[in-house]
Each structure stands twice: as structure tokens, then as C-alpha cells.
Amino acid sequence: MNVNEAKKKAMNGLGLLDINSGVYHGKWMATEGKKSIESVCPINGQILGSVAQGDADDYEQVMAAAEKAFKLWSKVPPPGRGEIAGEIGAELSKNKELLGLLVTLEVGKTISEGAGEIQEAIDIASFAAGLSRQLYGLTIASERPEHRLMEQWHPLGTIGVITSFNFPAAVWAWNALIAAVVGDVTVWKPSSSALLTAVAVSRIANKVVERNGLPPIFLLACGSGRTVGNLLVNDKRVSLVSFTGSTATGRSVGEQTAARFGKSILELGGNNCAVITPNADIDLAVKGVAFGAIATAGQRCTSTRRALIHSSIYDNFITKLTDVYNKVNIGSPLDPSSIVGPLVNNDAVDNYKTTIARAQEQNGRILHGGNVYKARNCKSGCFVIPTIIEIDKQEGIVLEETFAPILYVMKYDNLQDAVRIHNSVPQGLSSAIFSTDIRETEYFISNAGSDCGIVNVNTSTAGAEIGGAFGGEKETGGGRESGSDAWKYYARRQTVTVNYGKDIPLSQGVVFPV
Ligand code: UN1
């Protein structure tokens, strides 16, 4: 399939137009007179369509609708909310192929990864549906006679969800569907590089809401970070801001939200490392590292950016890894044989080049790649060759996250050293150890081991399942989303004490004789 055919199929199938409304507040904002942003296909630079942007007035309308919707939605019993999440999952399933194709066209993921992205949203929908019947609180033993102590979880209100281009549907679903079953409403500000996907997903979710006669609980506010983004972050009506993006922007989102005593979930940069010990199943480790470093052209928060390899197996591992890199097909992600699609835009290509130049200045030796790539029938110039750079010292550019397929490889001699190097970066999202020795793997997942929010044994740093809590430590921001009990971030905990006796005994033995 070429871009034109795919564009026709996805845009027609999903009912997308040349100019689409990017604001939903119970109805779709009229597009006339609004500034619109073009969605550019990173495969060949073709314009896919445009999305009209909201301004400060549109934002106000969205917020007013959100506040009204919350009053009604929070009264719906959670299992009823779960049914809506389930129905959205079913609608996403029906449109999985088309939505996946749109993701491929808009951000350049392979067909398989585009479909996987939508599957991730479908999975979270069924998780949220089940969760809606499991929003448990505790009952705690009271120290006072005839007293009951317990905790319950109430919805927060309006949640701002600011997402990045690289998971343009799944990360919305992680936040919006979990928040919805908790009883919240969400205002989504998607990345300007993935606006059509946001519009398509929002339409599907809102059709379900509308046909059930419910108020608008999934609001959309496409607009620039400077207007809509800033308004959301600084708005006291927004109880929680969930932000996915760079550490630099996330730092300021966190500070501004905290300054108004708002809550935030920050999913920021990763600098994920795989440790390969002498006891590793080398072929499995090679596959795990290659997938982590190359998939999504290295544009996942969880992409493998560093590999620490024991010196006794280093040469063998590198030979096998470069063999895999040599066989990897770079080209249009619409072609099922391509494993590496384009980077999202030309800025990303510039970052790739600058990072490689800086690594070389630091005596990094290129073992594979190092250059942009001219893919057949692809005119965008966004294609790059997955790159392996050997380094001796972890410093400078290696401490930074570059959203590109660049893997730094290093040697180590003992596992304690490897863990020290592994942890000596500012970020703390995902990590992996490849070893068949239980002592090594248990050490790595112990408190003395990886300091990341996610740790993997014999599998890649990338590709987390939705059932676990997703997020990381240090400059990754500390937030948790998706599975496990991450729903608690979207709720306010209330401790309840009930006295059912005829006296009023005080805690801590305090006497108050009145
Ligand atoms: C991200 O890159 O922001 O674990 C999310 C993974 C995906 C999610 C990544 N399930 O790679």
C-alpha cells in the first residue's frame, strides 16, 4: 500500500475531512475562522489533513462543559461507568485496523505497531471495565470503642491529559478510561504531531457517550502548548494534570501545578538500559535489545538506549547484534516487511544527527549506522539508520534521552559495577537484565539493583503490558499510570471515622472533661 491508498482508506473509513474540528465540549467546535494545523505524514511529507485549533475562549467552553459533566457523571455508579469503558473498547476494536493505519500515517509506526497501539487502548478499556467493580477502600481497626475507621475514594473532578506523539491513542486511554471509571472527566490536549489520531479516537469515544445519553466526559482541546497547555496546567479547576513528554517541559508542568496545589502525574524521559551477563541466553538477549532499541524507531519512552555487556561475551554479543541490525529493513512502515519507519519529523532527524556528532566528540565509536537513510518511495527525509555506538565512559550526551534509534554499548566486568553504571543517569523509567542465573536476576530486581520504575528479566525494556503500573523514578517524574492501583492517582482518598456509641472517647487517650 502506498501513502495515498492508505490515506484514502484511513481518512474515509474514519470519516476524517480536510479540516477537522479539534475541540469537543459536547459538540464539535465550528472550524470556520480557526487556525488549523496540518498533519504531515513522516513517510513522504504529504499533508494528510488539518485540525482546527482551540483558543482561550474555546478552552473556557471546554472547561465549563467539563464541570457540568462531572456533576452528573460522578453520580453514575462505577459499574455503569465501566460499561461505557467496555463499549468504547468494543468500538475501538471495530476500528482497530483503520485507527492503526492512521497512527502509521501520522507518526510513522509500522503497521504491526500501529495496530498494537490501538490494542493497548482496547486492553485498557477492558481493564477499566473490570476495575469499575473493584474500586476498593479499606476498613481499619479503630483504637476507640464503638468506632469504625475506613477509607474511601472519591473522584477528583476534571483531569488534564497532555499526551505525546509517540503513543497518540494508548496514553490517552490509560488516563481517560481509568479516570472515567473513577468518576472523573478528562480534557485531552494531544501532541500537535498526532492531531488526526486524537480527533478520530475522541469521535469514537464520544459517540458511545452520546448514544448513552451521557454528558461530555471525554473533552478534547487541540491547541498549542502555549495557550491550551498553559491554561490547563495553571487552572485551579483542573485537579490533576497528567503529562507525558520531555523532562524539561515536565519539570515546569510539575512546578506550576504544585504551585497551585494541583496534583500531577509526570511521565518524562527515560534512559533505559539492558544488562547482559555472561549467563545470558545470548540469542534471546540480542532479540530483546534489538527490539528495545529499534522498535518505533527508538521513539518510545521505554526504548533501550544503553546496553551494558559483560566483557567475556562482549565481542560475541556485538557480532550477533550487528548481524541483526544489518538485516533490519528500513522503509515505508506501510510495507509489512519494514521494521524501521521514519522518525516523526525533521527536528527528530536533526536531534539524531546532533546526538551522534556529540557522541563522536566524546570518543564514541560507531559500530553500525550513524547516518540518515534514503528509503525507496519515501520523500520525507525522516528515515535514519539504527545506530550502535560503543563508548568507554558514560558521560555527556549519554546521560540525555534522544528520541531516536541510537544505542550506546559499554563493557563491564562485575555486576555490582554494572548496576552502579546502570543507575548513574538522571532518568529512571525502564530497565532489563538478561541472565539465566537466579542470583543475578534477583540481585537486579532487589532494592540494591535497578532504581527504575520498571524492571524486566529476560525481556525488553520496551513493551510493558497495561496490567502493571507504568512510570519511573528520578527525572522520569515519579508518576504511575495504566494498570495495578494507578487508578488511585485519579481519586481523592478520604479517611472516615464513624462513632456509633453513646460516648465520645478521644484518640491518643486524651481526656477532655466537659
Ligand atoms: C511511552 O513510550 O510513552 O511500554 C509509552 C511500552 C508501551 C508504552 C510506552 N506499552 O513500550
Helix content: 25-40%
Summing up helix and strand content along with how strands pair, one would put the structural category as alpha/beta
Shape: globular
Rounded to the nearest angstrom, the distance between the terminal CA atoms is 83 Å
Whole-number average pLDDT? 98
Mind summarizing the main beta sheet? 7 strands, mixed
Describe the structure.
The chain has 514 residues and is α/β, with parallel strands linked by helices. The protein folds into 2 domains: 3-268 and 476-493, Aldehyde Dehydrogenase, Chain A, domain 1 (3-Layer(aba) Sandwich); 272-467, 3-Layer(aba) Sandwich (Aldehyde Dehydrogenase, Chain A, domain 2), CATH 3.40.309.10. 37% of the residues lie in helices and 21% in strands. The protein contains 14 helices and 23 strands. The chain has helices at residues 3-13, 56-73, 78-94, 96-107, 111-131, 170-182, 195-211, 225-234, 247-259, 282-294, 314-327, 346-361, 415-423, 438-445; strands spanning 19-21, 23-24, 36-40, 47-52, 139-140, 147-155, 158-162, 185-189, 218-221, 238-244, 263-267, 272-276, 304-310, 365-368, 387-390, 406-412, 427-428, 430-434, 454-457, 469-470, 473-474, 481-482, 491-499. The strands form 6 sheets. It has a 7-stranded mixed beta sheet, with helices on both faces. A 6-stranded mixed beta sheet has the order 2-9-8-7-10-11, with helices on both faces. A hairpin with a 6-residue loop joins strand 3 and strand 4 (47-52). Helix 1 crosses helix 4 (96-107), helix 3 (78-94) runs antiparallel to helix 5 and helix 5 packs parallel to helix 6. The longest helix has 21 residues, at 111-131.
